[in-house]
Q: What sequence folds into this?
């Protein structure tokens, strides 16, 4: 009598309809386990199965079980009937396709690469409140990337000092001032104080420049506190809230997406902790999956890397992430991305940040183009003439890129850029 039934979840002749949710995994069977059985175990444990045959099996189970429909070397595609998944519940989807399966002894390594979600599944999600066009309209910025900076060092300023640096950043021509991912409401910089000081400085900067200025003020905390902080932001005329989405959790982001949307707040998603699971090419979850989930839930923008800065991510990966967030329909990329038609789900901005300075701006814009939120933080506050000159230098580098001019040429008529190039040149941080 068979004690397990994993092979019941394998049918490589199966053709999933347009109504099934399909997932692509990289997998390495443990010693002594065949690819077919390992694949069957992934499908079983992520849908209706368990380790042993069962005494009774209601007929409905057969209609709900996942099916391995393609095994190609170390890549497997699994189709999931839509009835497995609760409408509009991203957390439950992740408990299924990104849950127990990572810990199975029969699999030595497993990496969830991507999912392709049918229209019938995505129609239960609201997606980004504004979309890229809506953000550009709200900020009155066209024809260039939106720009921002985090006061540095990361934390330690009090609210007044923080806002004073924010003012210099805005006066240097930047659109946004961003909290660092580990700044929330600390003894030396309470959230309410920071909102009050930043509101004062924003109003002064808007009056002085005539431009729309905003900030990504970090509301990350328990969900009730995040709601309270979102209300505080809306009450002070802000149009963004920032959430560290990985540490806050999928369900919290889902709650805040609707709450912020009702308050007219876009969500800036920081991805701190992503490298705990997306960096190892043989195990974990890819950044394209995280980006896809966050667009589906409805953040307005999420960090996607620089390729040339201080943190992980190749040019190819970064360009792919930009497509996942911006495109209406992303085509399949072998072993990396599944075909995804986003239907009515609006676009979201990629955010490039991390080790950037004016000398690297053309490299980043060559990868992303202008539909980007570009964050240059240490790279403006470290400018020899200070924050405002650093922001001006960055804006000059953007102008040079847009006009097809080299930075060296632009620097001849742009002293702030010239000073930046004297200090950093084209240095790529390690
Ligand atoms: C960048 C940053 C961002 C990283 C996050 C930092 O500051 O504020 O958190 O960019 O990485 O704390 O390092 P610098 P990613 O510009 O001074 O490096 O964007 O890859 O998620
Ligand atoms: Mg940071």
A:
């Amino acid at each position: 009598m068979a004690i397990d039934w994993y092979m019941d979840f394998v049918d490589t002749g199966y053709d999933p309809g347009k109504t099934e949710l399909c997932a692509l995994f990289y997998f390495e069977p443990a010693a002594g386990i065949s690819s077919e059985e390992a694949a069957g175990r992934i499908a079983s444990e992520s849908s209706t199965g368990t380790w042993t045959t069962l005494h009774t099996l209601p007929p409905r189970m057969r209609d709900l079980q996942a099916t391995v429909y393609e095994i190609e070397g170390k890549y497997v595609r699994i189709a999931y009937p839509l009835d497995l998944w609760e409408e509009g519940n991203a957390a439950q989807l992740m408990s299924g396709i990104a849950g127990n399966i990572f810990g199975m002894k029969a699999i030595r390594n497993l990496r969830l690469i991507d999912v392709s979600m049918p229209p019938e599944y995505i129609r239960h999600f609201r997606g980004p409140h504004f979309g890229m066009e809506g953000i550009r309209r709200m900020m009155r910025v066209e024809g260039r990337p939106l720009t921002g900076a985090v006061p540095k060092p990361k934390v330690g300023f009090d609210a007044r000092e923080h806002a004073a640096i924010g003012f210099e950043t805005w006066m240097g021509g930047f659109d946004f001032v961003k909290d660092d991912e580990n700044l929330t409401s600390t003894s030396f910089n309470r959230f309410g104080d920071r909102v009050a000081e930043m509101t004062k400085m924003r109003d002064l900067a808007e009056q002085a420049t005539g431009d729309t200025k905003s900030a990504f003020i970090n509301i990350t905390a328990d969900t009730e506190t995040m709601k309270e902080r979102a209300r505080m932001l809306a009450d002070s005329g802000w149009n963004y809230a920032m959430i560290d989405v990985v540490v806050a959790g999928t369900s919290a982001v889902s709650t805040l997406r609707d709450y912020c949307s009702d308050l007219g707040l876009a969500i800036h998603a920081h991805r701190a902790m992503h490298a705990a699971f997306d960096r190892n090419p043989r195990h974990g979850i890819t950044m394209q999956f995280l980006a896809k989930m966050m667009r589906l839930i409805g953040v307005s923008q999420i960090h996607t890397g620089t390729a040339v800065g201080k943190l992980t991510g190749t040019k190819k990966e970064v360009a792919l992430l930009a497509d996942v967030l911006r495109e209406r329909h992303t085509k399949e990329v072998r072993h990396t991305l599944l075909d995804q038609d986003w239907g009515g789900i609006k676009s979201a901005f990629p955010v490039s940040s991390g080790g950037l300075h004016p000398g690297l701006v053309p490299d980043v814009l060559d990868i992303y183009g202008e539909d980007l939120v570009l964050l240059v933080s240490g790279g403006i506050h470290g400018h020899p003439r200070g924050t405002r000159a650093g922001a001006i230098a960055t804006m000059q580098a953007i102008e040079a890129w847009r006009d097809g001019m080299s930075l060296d040429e632009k620097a001849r008529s742009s002293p702030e850029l010239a000073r930046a190039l004297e200090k950093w040149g084209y240095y790529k941080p390690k």
